[in-house]
Amino acid sequence: MSDLAAPHILALTAYEPGKPEDELRRELGLEDIVKLASNENPYGPSPKAVAAVSGETLALHRYPDPRGHHLREALGAHHRVSAAEICLGNGSNEIIDLICRVCAGRGEHAVFGHPSFPCYRIGSIAQELRFTAVPLREHLYWNVDDLLAAVTDETKLLFVSNPNNPTGAYIGRTDLARLLRELPGRVLAVVDEAYVEYVDADDFAPATELRDTRERLAILRTFSKAYGLAGLRVGYVIGTTDLVTHLNRLRAPFNVSTPGQAAAAVALGDQAHLRETVTATVEDRAKLTTALEAFGLRVAPSQANFVLVDVGRPGRAVYEALLQEGVIVRPMPPPLDHWLRVTVGRPGENQRFLDSLERVLRESRA
Ligand SMILES: Cc1ncc(COP(=O)(O)O)c(C=O)c1O
Q1: How far apart are CA 191 and CA 177, in angstroms?
Q2: Using a 6 Å CB cutoff, which residues line ligand 1?
């Protein structure tokens, strides 16, 4: 075995991203491809945000604002917090990694759900943390008591994705408030709200409304999903000024690009575009769910911009067959290896997926 990488890094499985359209185009020579694999906003960002990065006003020969002043001020006003309680990241992914590096030391313990977003595990392993991946009920649903039961005297971090990627399940207001209250004060609770804009459940509360329940609380948000800016890599965390000060000790200099900062600030100001695209996706999430159920398939109830569907046979084979049709979805590792995660696309993209899936399932039965 190579000793080039440290042993705990050799034990890591790299994050498997959704297949890029261009890669499938190169591999299969297909032109007409539908990508429903990375939970992006199929309508794209606010046109005003696009205009903000294509203008000649950005001094691209200069480094970006290292503190992201304007964007943090805009976010502070949006969330009614001070800019000093916000730290920007190169995507919220960078913040997850930063939190693992800054807030826990080797041998300390992290808790997260399983299945959930793989980067909590990757960040923990990279820091040589011990961790407990708490099984979700029926592999799908959060249970706050299960999370609390996994906390030990060494636990420093607890990650919850709310709503959860890849299951779409959420923790409601009462349960989240209880989790945040009952977690020992030592633990930093990280509530990852990458999909929060898509939630329409009445009993949901964003963690921004529960900040008075505990001091050690980090709320992650991103511009990659509903704001449609995945290509620019901008995320952020809302926490105490103390947390932000500590994260800044290790945050890479100039971690968010000038176009990223500019576009995010403009996108934040265009809430009408956000609402319009989110409303369309939430409506289409229901239609996609109904259509899949009409095939006789089980769909996990989702509060995000994707659905998880049980295809009743190895999901990877169905995924591969869909690729041949030019449709990219996301196969799941065990215990969800009979499920596929499908981003809610534009209506025509969803229909193309449904038609292809129907063909693939029919042929695999024959
Ligand atoms: C739950 C969750 N958190 C964080 C991220 C990372 O998003 P980004 O780094 O693009 O902000 C993702 C991306 O898929 C996600 O699903």
Answers
A1: 12
A2: 39, 91-93, 117, 161, 165, 192, 194, 222, 224, 230, 235
